[in-house]
């Protein structure tokens, strides 16, 4: 915490000497993640994380300046895993429609799954005290995925498989449209959309996107 009360996100401490035990690193982050998601940020102590991880408090503090830094590391790791490029864009030669459907399906899993809802509740509870946490989630998960999607749209436009003038805007509109009712229902704790209905929604979103951004059949035509 800075002197003016604003939270700062410290990176893990870097120590000289023997290499760090990566097994302990993983155990700490796994234990902390489970506890934060189950009990919320405020209810979890570093002692509880140490006990669950099977390490000492000193081991944790050798890596993280405080509980805020530990939570930030958990959040960053979860986000980076969730938006792994291979999870959303697995093959360059995959048909565009299949990629759009895969992207939408996994994006909905990302924003409406049980872990996502748990994370959302923790972030909402912490926003007033530590707004940087929500910013970190937005930058590491949401913005990263949007940027990768936009770059894929630019590549596919260059390859002649799509015609997208504003890749960033198109990416936001597609992701926003896909979220739709499914995300609202998850946010309010309502039963999810039936799988067949959700599948139809995703396919319709992909087809609408393709109609809006079909490749120009006449490449030499002025646009």
TrEMBL record:
Residues 22-82 form the HTH tetR-type domain. Residues 1-20 are annotated as: Disordered. SUPFAM superfamilies: Homeodomain-like (SSF46689), Tetracyclin repressor-like, C-terminal domain (SSF48498). Keywords: DNA-binding, Transcription, Transcription regulation. Residues 45-64 bind DNA. Pfam families: TetR_C_7, TetR_N. One of its GO terms (molecular function) is transcription cis-regulatory region binding. PANTHER family: HTH-TYPE TRANSCRIPTIONAL DUAL REGULATOR CECR (PTHR30055:SF146), HTH-TYPE TRANSCRIPTIONAL REGULATOR RUTR (PTHR30055). This is HTH tetR-type domain-containing protein. It comes from Brevundimonas subvibrioides. The lineage of its organism: Bacteria, Pseudomonadati, Pseudomonadota, Alphaproteobacteria, Caulobacterales.
